[in-house]
Specification:
The structure is a single chain. It is built from six helices and ten strands. It has 249 residues and is an alpha/beta fold. It folds into two domains: 120 residues, GTP cyclohydrolase I, C-terminal domain/NADPH-dependent 7-cyano-7-deazaguanine reductase, N-terminal domain (GTP Cyclohydrolase I, domain 2), CATH 3.30.1130; 125 residues, no CATH class. Strands 7-8-6-5-9-10 form a six-stranded parallel sheet. Helix 1 crosses helix 2. The termini are far apart. The model has no long low-confidence stretch (mean pLDDT 90).
Length: 249
Amino acid sequence: MDRIFLRDYIIETEIGAFEVERGTTQRLRFTIEVEVARVEAGDDVDLILSYDRIIEAVGDEVSFARVALLETLADGIAARILSHPQAQAVHLEIEKPDRGPFVLGIRVTRWRGEVSLIDQASNVPHVVYLGQNGLPVAGAVNCVAGDRARVADIQAQRRLDLLAVEQAAWQRVAPGITVAATRTEMDWALRQGLAVIWAPAKMVLEASDPPDATTPDALAVWLAERLGADTITAFETISAESCIRVRQG
């Protein structure tokens, strides 16, 4: 199997079993290697375990609850990483460099199947259909509409539909607002609290199950279904057929 790694990643947090360690922070240094099943990713970032996922696993577990033992922290981080379908094993080293004129730490290895995995269902993004005029919503994936050229050729029309949405997305970039073309980019930007505007061409053109229609509202419905959302907040009318509940914004 292939391996990806994170080395010498340092954070400050409160941890420790001794009373002297309570109410104060100390540094922790992480070195993490993940054995991953090989996949034919075709240079698609959404098909691989991103380095950001490793960093996020550390941050999420540290912020989840205060723990006394590095072993407990290591188990939680490993469970979060192994929840990614590509991850097969995690080799994790955590060091405490501030406990004295020496370095304390642990090394553990956890294999898929040894730990209870973390349910990722709560990571489903909130999808918003803005249409042409709505203001981007922070912490959500926003779908926009643009002025579409009309041609007779069906395939050319699909490309022009996607191009119109892409142009409308990039025209709205501003502080706190970013454009994302992949799920990995969306997840990263949402964790930063940004308003994400979807640029659909890459996902649609590379999908094994592309949408039947490429009108802006149909694209928003397709994205919401693909992301596993159960609701779309719409600031303009969605006329495309949808099995997802539409809530007016």
